[in-house]
Amino acid sequence: MSSLHPGADTAQILTHLRSLRNEANIAGMARFGIVTDTALGITTDDMRKIARAIKKDHVRALALWQTGLRDARLLAAFTAEPRKLSLQEARDWAADFNSWEIVDSVADLFVESGHWPVLIPEFAADEREFVRRTAFSMMAWAAVHLKKEPDEHILAFLPLIERYATDPRNFVRKAVNWALRQIGKRGPACRGPAWTLAETLADSGDRTARWIGKDAIREFEKKFGPRVKDGRDQSGKA
């Protein structure tokens, strides 16, 4: 796939990316709601192969991001060094977000940076659609991958989920729902509180909140079986 190597500079990488432009893929991405104004149509799998070839380089990743190209920004997300990412760099990148795909590709980097306790509430309160989505994508990623993080830190996301569950914008509501479902599936300690919130939202007078709650309940029931009145599932776990 790639003749690139860890020493490749930004110009060499951009030349290689442009050589892989695929119009059919660009059209397909657009059908999935991906913003393709600056896209080259390189698949995510191929982008990850390129990332493995060039290795991580934080300064180069920042330069790739500044190009504004969709594919270069994905490569930046895959090759940035999480612990070198500053809070301001994360904020600057978030200000550029214009597509759910970019948000979800960068969310794990933001979590791995260690800045998530600051960024999640900050981004959730931000009125910009894709910045707010970032907060809930980060929650979903953290619930799954931060396995050593105390459950109470993950459960602290639930009030934010409840607060913003009435945001009707498509890319926000889907991320809020995603975060709630992933928290509920994290483990027994998180299941009960997430399920209780899902039930609260399902009874809401707000249409968006009802959808988020009911969809989460469907997934919980599919995975754990029906919840009984004392808050325990069929396995007997809370």
TrEMBL record:
<dbReference type="Pfam" id="PF08713">
    <property type="entry name" value="DNA_alkylation"/>
</dbReference>
<dbReference type="InterPro" id="IPR016024">
    <property type="entry name" value="ARM-type_fold"/>
</dbReference>
<protein>
    <submittedName>
        <fullName>3-methyladenine DNA glycosylase AlkD</fullName>
    </submittedName>
</protein>
<dbReference type="InterPro" id="IPR014825">
    <property type="entry name" value="DNA_alkylation"/>
</dbReference>
